[in-house]
């Protein structure tokens, strides 16, 4: 070897290769739990935080900004019609708003006061799914089931034990012959295997209790279910709203679109409930919920159900409740191997792992380092 200083080149190669790989790894679009700074105290500021100012508002009041709350209720189906194009919602606490609040309170198991009491406002500002609770004017949540919900607190139910699961109007489902559904990720997101694994775990929750199976495919446009992270207006008339507010939405069968708000602080692994960031949202929890929509379930008034419309930040809820299972088995039947319990048998992700959303695994890093080393060696010798 003619080179007088081979050790120097080896050193340069290794330093350069590790520098390059670290540059790539640090380009995280979504933060890792362990890298977050402690958040300020108090409730997280979200898209609907200003609604807290309406505390105590009731019928007849006129309060600056109430029109935004009406838009909120209209968006989730509680006010049936948008105002004419020539005018906006008024700031008056009118009959339509009072009626919307009462229906909302019924659906969310709150005291039906028709007023913006603190308990109601606490529920309203929680982050939630973008799918409406009332579709085409019909709620299949609790407010739409009053005639059937007689078994609670009543030893002689007039009808039968109540389920609160709901279905989309017309009860759409994937066709009988389609037991395997394919899913794909929007190529532009370039998701890591760790992230894809979160979605696989979420799909597994549903296949555990039904005959359905799910298989990832690379063919995005040919897949039955198409998953992507998007920001703001992304072309389907349901724009995302930044931090918190609506977190994600999905369409009923057999549409297959599943969109997540790229602006959220998605937690892929690690204990979301111990996160210092008040806006941390657990990815698997939201994925399990949205897959319920993709398969045909609407929202449920059962708070323990994954199909309940809201989820607090820093909360993990991934185990199907009895209500969810009844709903999905109503549509698809049961998995012959299902033993009647998901609470312990559902696959749990390793919560001690705090891998970032976009990361390179050890072997990829090693391979890349070796490649860089060989490349530099080739140039010098
Ligand atoms: Zn939903
Ligand atoms: Zn969308």
From TrEMBL:
<feature type="binding site">
    <location>
        <position position="261"/>
    </location>
    <ligand>
        <name>Ca(2+) 3</name>
    </ligand>
</feature>
<dbReference type="GO" id="GO:0008270">
    <property type="term" value="F:zinc ion binding"/>
</dbReference>
<dbReference type="GO" id="GO:0030198">
    <property type="term" value="P:extracellular matrix organization"/>
</dbReference>
<dbReference type="GO" id="GO:0004222">
    <property type="term" value="F:metalloendopeptidase activity"/>
</dbReference>
<dbReference type="InterPro" id="IPR036365">
    <property type="entry name" value="PGBD-like_sf"/>
</dbReference>
<feature type="binding site">
    <location>
        <position position="361"/>
    </location>
    <ligand>
        <name>Ca(2+) 4</name>
    </ligand>
</feature>
<dbReference type="Pfam" id="PF01471">
    <property type="entry name" value="PG_binding_1"/>
</dbReference>
<dbReference type="GO" id="GO:0031012">
    <property type="term" value="C:extracellular matrix"/>
</dbReference>
<feature type="binding site">
    <location>
        <position position="224"/>
    </location>
    <ligand>
        <name>Ca(2+) 2</name>
    </ligand>
</feature>
<feature type="binding site">
    <location>
        <position position="293"/>
    </location>
    <ligand>
        <name>Zn(2+) 2</name>
    </ligand>
</feature>
<feature type="active site">
    <location>
        <position position="290"/>
    </location>
</feature>
<feature type="binding site">
    <location>
        <position position="234"/>
    </location>
    <ligand>
        <name>Zn(2+) 1</name>
    </ligand>
</feature>
<keyword id="KW-0378">Hydrolase</keyword>
<comment type="similarity">
    <text>Belongs to the peptidase M10A family. Matrix metalloproteinases (MMPs) subfamily.</text>
</comment>
<dbReference type="InterPro" id="IPR024079">
    <property type="entry name" value="MetalloPept_cat_dom_sf"/>
</dbReference>
<keyword id="KW-0812">Transmembrane</keyword>
<keyword id="KW-0482">Metalloprotease</keyword>
<keyword id="KW-0862">Zinc</keyword>
<dbReference type="InterPro" id="IPR033739">
    <property type="entry name" value="M10A_MMP"/>
</dbReference>
<keyword id="KW-0732">Signal</keyword>
<keyword id="KW-0472">Membrane</keyword>
<dbReference type="InterPro" id="IPR001818">
    <property type="entry name" value="Pept_M10_metallopeptidase"/>
</dbReference>
<feature type="binding site">
    <location>
        <position position="289"/>
    </location>
    <ligand>
        <name>Zn(2+) 2</name>
    </ligand>
</feature>
<dbReference type="GO" id="GO:0030574">
    <property type="term" value="P:collagen catabolic process"/>
</dbReference>
<feature type="binding site">
    <location>
        <position position="259"/>
    </location>
    <ligand>
        <name>Zn(2+) 1</name>
    </ligand>
</feature>
<keyword id="KW-0106">Calcium</keyword>
<keyword id="KW-0645">Protease</keyword>
<feature type="domain" description="Peptidase metallopeptidase">
    <location>
        <begin position="170"/>
        <end position="334"/>
    </location>
</feature>
<feature type="binding site">
    <location>
        <position position="264"/>
    </location>
    <ligand>
        <name>Ca(2+) 3</name>
    </ligand>
</feature>
<dbReference type="GO" id="GO:0006508">
    <property type="term" value="P:proteolysis"/>
</dbReference>
<feature type="binding site">
    <location>
        <position position="236"/>
    </location>
    <ligand>
        <name>Zn(2+) 1</name>
    </ligand>
</feature>
<keyword id="KW-1133">Transmembrane helix</keyword>
<feature type="binding site">
    <location>
        <position position="241"/>
    </location>
    <ligand>
        <name>Ca(2+) 3</name>
    </ligand>
</feature>
<feature type="binding site" description="in inhibited form">
    <location>
        <position position="129"/>
    </location>
    <ligand>
        <name>Zn(2+) 2</name>
    </ligand>
</feature>
<keyword id="KW-0479">Metal-binding</keyword>
<dbReference type="Pfam" id="PF00413">
    <property type="entry name" value="Peptidase_M10"/>
</dbReference>
<protein>
    <recommendedName>
        <fullName>Peptidase metallopeptidase domain-containing protein</fullName>
    </recommendedName>
</protein>
<keyword id="KW-0325">Glycoprotein</keyword>
<feature type="binding site">
    <location>
        <position position="299"/>
    </location>
    <ligand>
        <name>Zn(2+) 2</name>
    </ligand>
</feature>
<feature type="binding site">
    <location>
        <position position="242"/>
    </location>
    <ligand>
        <name>Ca(2+) 3</name>
    </ligand>
</feature>
<feature type="short sequence motif" description="Cysteine switch">
    <location>
        <begin position="127"/>
        <end position="162"/>
    </location>
</feature>
<feature type="binding site">
    <location>
        <position position="264"/>
    </location>
    <ligand>
        <name>Ca(2+) 1</name>
    </ligand>
</feature>
């Amino acid at each position: 070897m003619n080179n007088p200083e081979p050790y120097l080149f080896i050193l340069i190669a290794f330093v350069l290769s590790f520098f390059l790989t670290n540059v790539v790894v640090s380009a995280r679009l979504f933060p890792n739990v362990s890298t977050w700074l402690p958040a300020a105290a108090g409730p997280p500021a979200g898209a609907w935080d200003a609604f807290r100012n309406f505390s105590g508002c009731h019928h007849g009041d006129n309060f600056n900004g109430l029109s935004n709350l009406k838009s909120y209720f209209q968006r989730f189906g509680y006010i049936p019609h948008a105002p004419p194009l020539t005018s906006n919602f008024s700031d008056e606490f009118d009959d339509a708003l009072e009626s919307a609040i009462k229906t909302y309170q019924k659906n969310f198991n709150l005291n039906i006061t028709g007023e913006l009491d603190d308990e109601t406002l606490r529920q309203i500002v929680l982050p939630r799914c973008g799918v409406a609770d009332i579709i085409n004017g019909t709620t299949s949540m609790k407010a739409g089931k009053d005639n059937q919900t007689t078994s609670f607190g009543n030893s002689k139910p007039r009808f039968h034990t109540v389920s609160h699961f709901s279905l989309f109007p017309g009860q759409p489902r994937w066709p009988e012959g389609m037991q395997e559904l394919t899913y794909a990720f929007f190529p532009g997101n370039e998701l890591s295997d760790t992230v894809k694994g979160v979605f696989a775990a979420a799909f597994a929750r549903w296949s555990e209790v039904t005959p359905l199976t799910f298989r990832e495919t690379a063919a995005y446009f040919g897949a039955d279910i198409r998953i992507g992270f998007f920001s703001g207006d992304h072309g389907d008339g349901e724009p995302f709203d930044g931090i918190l507010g609506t977190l994600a939405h999905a369409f009923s069968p057999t549409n297959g679109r599943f969109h997540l708000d790229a602006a959220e602080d998605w937690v892929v692994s690690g204990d979301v409930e111990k996160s210092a960031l008040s806006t941390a949202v657990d990815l698997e929890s939201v994925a399990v919920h949205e897959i319920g929509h993709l398969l045909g379930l609407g929202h449920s008034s059962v708070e323990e159900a994954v199909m309940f419309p809201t989820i607090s930040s820093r909360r993990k809820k991934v185990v199907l409740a009895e209500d969810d299972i009844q709903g999905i088995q109503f549509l698809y039947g049961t998995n012959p191997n299902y033993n009647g319990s998901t609470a312990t048998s559902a696959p749990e992700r390793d919560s001690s792992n705090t891998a970032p959303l976009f990361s390179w695994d050890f072997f990829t890093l090693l391979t890349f380092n070796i490649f860089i080393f060989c490349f530099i060696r080739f140039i010098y010798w």
